[in-house]
Specification:
This protein is of the alpha+beta class. About 40% of the residues lie in helices and about 25% in strands. It is built from six helices and twelve strands. Strand 7 and strand 8 form a beta hairpin.
């Protein structure tokens, strides 16, 4: 307390000067119209700048939520686009089958997630996402981004999951060429992160370079029509009985941030029913 009193007594003239200056400015602004308008204008300008910076900071911290919404929307629109393409092609061939295939894209629940760990320079890369069993994630669920497919859920914890991406030598995803019935299996053999191969394409298949490769929907992992990549080169298989396609992957794994886990419950039920029907027919034939 003594130190405070000594400080005030020592600097009394400076404190008095500041107080008188403040009183003088207040009186000047209050009783002079011109100075008052200048003060109000300057204060409004300063306040506007503060609000502008505050809004910018708030928008920056909201980008995470915006990215999640965009990823969900991109996956949804990709499915809608595939359905529309199938409906368009259905005008000329196999209408009922194409319409049913397009409708399979509707009604899937997606779980938005963020990539917390990722590698692209190994032969067997893995991705960790921030959603787990508590969020509804299960093993063997498909994972996609707004660009295309990412991989398959491999291990699930309570709040985190490990994804086996396309960039893994153990990845094996069924794909088709565009809207055709020609399907093969997607493999990655290391090397460039934006290139992979589709094997076992029949020799009688007819397609063109630069056609798009999409998921076939023949498994319970992915619905049909999700983008995989684009054909760049066509080779003969080692045994000469099929084609091997070199494709450019649609997903940029080096810049992967927001993904969606696809709840495949409905598709799994459809596949189980179909298999049960096939088994029933086999029993009757025997």
């Amino acid at each position: 307390m003594r130190n405070l009193v000594e400080f005030l007594l020592k600097n009394f003239h400076w404190l008095l000067f500041v107080v008188l200056e403040v009183i003088g400015i207040v009186l000047l602004v209050s009783y002079n119209q011109y100075q008052n308008s200048v003060w109000v204008s300057s204060a409004n300008s300063l306040t506007g700048k503060i609000y502008e910076y505050s809004s910018g900071v708030e928008s920056y911290f909201n980008l995470s939520g915006v990215n999640e919404q965009l990823t969900r929307r991109n996956v949804y629109l990709e499915g809608k686009l595939s359905r529309l393409q199938r409906q368009l092609s259905a005008q000329t061939v196999d209408t009922a089958r194409q319409m049913v295939a397009g409708q399979r894209l509707e009604g899937f629940r997606t779980i938005a997630a963020k990539v917390v760990s990722n590698s692209v320079n190994k032969r067997d890369n893995l991705i960790t996402i921030d959603k787990g069993r508590a969020d509804g994630v299960r093993e063997n669920m498909g994972v996609a981004s707004g660009q295309g497919i990412v991989g398959v859920v491999f291990l699930v914890g309570k709040h985190y999951s490990v994804v086996l991406p396309v960039l893994n030598s153990h990845s094996n995803i069924s794909c088709t060429i565009g809207n055709t019935n020609y399907f093969g299996y997607l493999h990655w053999q290391g090397g460039y992160r934006h290139m992979a191969y589709v094997d076992d394409i029949p020799r009688h298949a007819r397609f063109k370079p630069h056609e798009y490769v999409v998921t076939s929907g023949y498994s319970s992992i992915f619905p049909p029509g999700l983008l995989v990549g684009q054909i760049r080169y066509v080779f003969n298989s080692p045994d000469g009985l099929s084609y091997r396609l070199k494709i450019q992957l649609a997903t940029d794994f080096a810049n992967l941030r927001d993904v969606c886990v696809i709840d495949n419950s409905n598709l799994q039920e459809q596949i189980d029913i179909r298999r049960a029907a096939e088994d029933s027919l086999k029993v009757r034939q025997e």
